[in-house]
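Lecture 7 notes: from sequence to structure.
We start with the chain below.
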Amino acid sequence: MGKILILGTLDTKGEEFAFIKDIIENSGIETVIMDCGVKGEPFFAADINHAEVAHRGGESLQKLIAADDRGAAIDVMMRGARQLTAQLYEDGKIAGVISLGGSAGTTIAAHSMQALPVGLPKLMVSTVASGDTRPYIGVKDVTMMYSVVDISGINLLSSKILANAAFAISGMVKGETPQLDEEKPLIAATMFGLTTPCVTQAKAYLEKKGYEVLVFHATGTGGKAMETLIEGGYFKGVLDVTTTEWCDELVGGVLSAGPHRLEAAAKAGIPQVVSTGALDMVNFGGIETVPDQYRDRHLYKHNATTTLMRTTQEENQQLGKIIAQKINMNHASSAIFLPLHGVSEIDKEGKPFFGPQENKALFAALRNNITNDAVEILEMEQHINDEAFAVTMAQKLIQLMGHTD
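Predicted structure tokens for the same chain:
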């Protein structure tokens, strides 16, 4: 059994780290201690001391202490801890990682955890776990536990919370994942609430043909997670039905997946089938959160916490050009499917975002900007959620992967 890495600042949280160290080791698991503190003396000796962490981060500990710049010191310790954590994993020395901290400690530890692969246990006990945890989790399976009280000594409440954390990471490392009866080729797919019928039907078809489909919710983090796993070599093909995150990246909505969305399949050289799912909408929070410059646009209250804004003809032209450029990068077999009767559940006649002219601009931009001969353009007189459209995309992906349907 591998060891558990305990990573954190032993000068300010040493008592608490010693507490979880004892519990973990009493459960029969060895530990590796990495000290990321800077100024104070560590509460107990670490296996990897703070001087080594600072050195790996590109600076000497003495210079960090002399400079007395907390922000700069955190940056150095983040870099060093991440490199050392990744090295410990690559060397087969750790099977899990746990940390405790406030905002600074969480920043350092979470940055290191994000260097580890999905599936390796990662547990962060933090005072900031009840807020926006996206900066700490990123696209990895970091488990965050709210500390409730500040991590400041062992008391009646903190002892229970920290003990639970120690038991949890110990259980994760000791546990054995049940083996599946059969490992099937993996396919990545993207879905939104308003493209669910399409993806559900395509998924069912692919699973009948012997594939396993992992569906990612196209909410920004979902797209990023998928791209990361594609780069990691998990998938044989990609069914990228729902490219809506590009609307938010272009216009300034809240569900952007960043400027590199749609690049991973090309870099990995694997087949992909792409469509225009939910390119009719930009996402905001509640109606009161819509920026002033968009208040006069075509808005639709999806629910109490989500407001959708219809993309314009000009925006669709830009989206078509961007998506075409991304797909052109893939020199493996690729295809883009154009649903000529609508790109989302609310883009059809009688629905709020019905927009034939906007879609016409989108499709024209895609046709005009696909320049890679390896990319097929397939137009169907269907709505994106029609069964025939979904099944035809699934069939095409099977074909592109070199299998017979």
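Points to note: The chain is about 40% helix and 20% strand. The domain at 3-174 is CATH 3.40.50.12020 (Rossmann fold).
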